[in-house]
Amino acid sequence: MAEAPHYLGHRKRLKEKFLKHGAERLADYELLELLLFLALPRRDVKPISKALLKRFGSFAEVVSADPARLREVDGIGEATLVALKTVQAAAIKLTREQVIEKPLIGSWQALLDYCRAAMAYGKKEQFRILFLDKKNVLIADERQQEGTVDHTPVYPREVIKRALELGASAIIMVHNHPSGDPTPSRDDIEMTLEVMEAGKKLGIKLHDHIIIARSGHTSFKSMGLI
Fold first, then answer.
1. pLDDT given for residue 6 in this prediction
2. Residue 123's pLDDT is what?
3. pLDDT, block means (10 residues), the chain with 226 residues
4. Is 20 within the bounds of a domain?
5. Same structural domain for residues 44 and 115?
6. Engineering a disulfide at 152: which of 12, 54, 125, 146 sits with its beta carbon 3.0 to 4.6 angstroms away?
7. Are residues 55 and 123 in the same domain?
8. Total count of domains within the chain
9. Assigned domain for 146 exists
10. Strand 170-176 relative to strand 205-213: parallel, antiparallel, unpaired?
11. Is 107 domain-assigned?
């Protein structure tokens, strides 16, 4: 009889470790291995997992990476690509479900978790607006713009116009900083103040402007900027 592949025993032990202790006891490369077991059932996936981490840095950055860049890693084909991006899509969907049709002011951590899953690892700046009703329940979540690595054009009049179209009473603005630093720029601050002033005239409140980055987030309200 042919000798069983050496990695089968490792797979069995890793699955047992996961079932017994959960993901908290797993290193990033082990969590990636578990995921890749499903996509590559007849291959040793540890080298691929470690190559992915060497290239991108962490589990979160691997599953959030651009598909074209993922394909540059040896061993990443269609099956592995689908597996990795499915995890990212599931994370965004799960966190979004925690904020839909709920008062966002009382679900702040859930909102931050959703924004981080959706935007923290983007390679280009994205500008998102959350539109709220009179009870601060989310009625729409729209990505308005996508810019370059360090700039997204935002037009205050268009922001308020869209809020009026949706019948929103308040908004929360969110954008990401691909640099990893959530510190607001002068342009960020000036644009935020313009939106706030434009909204006041029409009865639309700007609750906050949040900047999301890999290293954390910044809240304009918490910083006293609005």
1. 57
2. 85
3. 55 85 86 89 88 93 92 92 94 85 77 90 89 91 68 78 95 93 92 93 94 92 90
4. yes
5. no
6. 125
7. no
8. 2
9. yes
10. parallel
11. yes
